[in-house]
Amino acid sequence: MKIEQVLETYDEAYAEAYNNTFLTDIHSQTKTKHELKILTHLLSEKGTEARWLDVACGTGYYLSCFPEIQRAGLDISPAMLNIARRKNPEIPLIQGNFRDKSLVKKGEWDIISSMWWAYSFAESISEIEILIANIFDWLTDDGVCFMPICNPAKNLYSGQTNIPYVACENAPAYGGKILVTAVIWSWIESNGKRHDNMLVPQMEYMVEMFKKHFSTVEIVEYANGFYWGILAAKKERQFTNICSELTSESTTPTANLSPTQYSNFLNKFIRKLFHLRS
Ligand SMILES: C[S@@+](CC[C@H](N)C(=O)[O-])C[C@H]1O[C@@H](n2cnc3c(N)ncnc32)[C@H](O)[C@@H]1O
């Protein structure tokens, strides 16, 4: 999607209605709730000194849910940032393009998120690669990135069509492998607003791009199997168990929990027990 269109689409009226339309509305509230749980967990692991940057923060909704955390946002849309400022008056909010590495200091952030498929507003795969490289650069050495991603087969086709990443292992005529690396799609809203040529790399390709920089890259599935996110860390670690525990209703600990993960699980379990008894 072209920057001019991003700015045109995300105008004052759109920004004003954004949270009620795309975050707390009936279609998205479960997704939002699960994402807040994941962020809560990641932030609590880092403790009270955690520093969190939300890239393409929009109206700053997610940031506003954690007032106790040192945090900042970055977005290209002045209209979206106006709302973010209203909700988060005391924090740094940077207006600019997530392609621009110089906007953010290197190695400053423990957690970097980029919510609601904001990467798919990039105009090319190279721009998505730049965004991922920037996030790597902006994170501390043991920093963690959380990026919800679009799963083209499920989110765009409602599960009716599966577009394989590897289209052909041995291509006819010229040989070699054929990969369908990304899907380009447009959303023309009933009010006439346009999201033209959104770029969605296949999930496998997103993981490959992250793996060029990060030593751990995992996909988490949440909100009843309708949404996916990438968790990436510069250093080796395991996310999957804690995320499946956090995003399901189950209170049974899964195997291989680290001491921190296990203590978080116990905390949650005890809170549930207390709640049941009171
Ligand atoms: C779908 S909204 C998501 C907003 C927010 N992350 C959320 O989950 O509510 C996409 C956001 O990406 C921002 N955006 C799009 N392209 C951008 C770019 N190149 N640099 C920074 N922000 C961008 C838009 O202004 C918009 O606020």
What can you see in these coordinates?
The structure is a single chain. The protein has helices at residues 3-9, 12-22, 29-46, 61-64, 78-87, 125-138, 152-156, 203-211, 240-247, 259-277, and strands at residues 51-55, 70-75, 93-95, 109-113, 139-149, 166-168, 178-179, 182-188, 194-201, 216-222, 227-233. It has 278 residues and is α/β, with parallel strands linked by helices. The protein has one domain: Rossmann fold. The protein starts with a helix and ends with a helix. Residues 249-255 and 272-278 have low confidence and may be disordered. S-adenosylmethionine binds at residues 6, 10, 23, 56-58, 61, 75-77, 80, 97-98, 115-116, 118, 121.
Short description:
With 278 residues, the protein is an alpha/beta fold. The radius of gyration is 19 Å and the shape is globular. It has helices spanning 3-9, 12-22, 29-46, 61-64, 78-87, 125-138, 152-156, 203-211, 240-247, 259-277; strands at residues 51-55, 70-75, 93-95, 109-113, 139-149, 166-168, 178-179, 182-188, 194-201, 216-222, 227-233.
